[in-house]
Write a structure and sequence with these properties.
This protein is of the alpha/beta class. It has 2 domains: about 140 residues, Alpha-Beta Complex (Aspartate Aminotransferase, domain 1), CATH 3.90.1150; about 240 residues, Aspartate Aminotransferase, domain 2. About 40% of the residues lie in helices and about 15% in strands. It contains 14 helices and 13 strands. A 7-stranded mixed sheet has the order 2-8-7-6-5-3-4, with helices on both faces. The chain has a 4-stranded antiparallel sheet with strand order 9-10-13-12, covered by helices on one side. Strands 1-11 form a two-stranded parallel sheet. Helix 10 links the parallel strand 6 and strand 7. Helix 4 packs across helix 11 and helix 8 runs parallel beside helix 9.
Length: about 425
Amino acid sequence: MSYQNTLEFAREMDQQDPLKSFREQFFFPTFHEKEVVYFTGNSLGLQPKTTASYIQEELDAWAKYGVEGHFLAKKPWFAYHEELTQKTANIVGAKPEEVVVMHSLTTNLHLMMVSFYRPEGKRTKIICEAKAFPSDAYALESQVKFHGLDVNEHLVEVAPREGEHLIREEDVLAKIAEVGDELAMVMIGGVNYYTGQLFDMEKITAAGHAVGATVGWDLAHAAGNINLKLHDWGVDFAAWCGYKYLNSSPGGVSGVFVHERHADKPELPRFAGWWGYDKDTRFQMEPGFKPMHGAEGWQLSNAPVLGMAAHLASLDIFEAAGMDKIGEKRDKITAFLEFVIQDISTRNADRCTFEIITPSDKNYRGAQLSILAHGQGKALFDELTKLGVIADWREPNVIRIAPAPLYNSYEDCFRFGECLENAIQ
């Protein structure tokens, strides 16, 4: 498509956008003196206007029924997480029995690694990406230490080559082959939080399995953003948060995927809790853990219903929009934003040079662009904030922006370009 960096072109694209009506289903921040350009859905998604009513329904049930709300509420709390299951499976490309919404992201990653990182004999090593999100890095380090192993020896990082920002796929595959029968697990962020790089999860999963390792993914920046096919790709496990692209409240509930081939393996070690126990006999409270079928068997505690209600409000919007249409707009609007940035950079090359370190190939990115502003740095970001752009700064010198397809418009992209040019000047 041939883009133009004009307001008229942006508005024409918005008129043709099949998802344009969804923008009206979200609240935009009003704290700024200017109408904001909200490009931080990769950090915290906007609140759906229906969220309050979904939560209020459960507050009313609590007031009316007390503890009996577990069985008498319109959506009984005893099985509330089941309200989320099919919609979640549709977003991540899974079968319903392969997903469950529970707990928080890093908690869920730990629960998954208890089962799927089982160092034994010489098969003890983990491969991850260098500069993983800090919580992932800490989780991986602590898992290695939990098994009494040396982090420097058993945690293997794949980094970008000297002078490059992105990790080459061939380097990941080569490292998997090199570690070979010493490799216990591969665990990488499906979309790198810093660069926005999307990894070929299907290919890397197959490579890990080929040498006998388990393969899991942190999909914090992928769920609700990338068109995922976790079942078809054969991924062993994955986890993601609900508060970024999935717009499900600050610190909102997390999702977990466990492939169906692990659905009925009570012998898999796990940290058990009573909500993962066979629900038909759960209240008999017998000794000895009997896990539920599928991903539900990894639950620990009963559902945090208010947080799940916020999550359900967003999932219903995703269900109405459909991931196929979300993905189509994601690619178009991100390409337009990239064009706008490059146009501004070309016209202001004497003042500042922008380097987009996110891959230009739509097959290796989602709705995020990470910008290096050579010669400007944090001062440029601060000026953008004053002009009404809500973006994200990451040390040492990256501005991250994400045009979320459900609520961002092409006009937002044009307005960002105007703010960027004004900030330079």
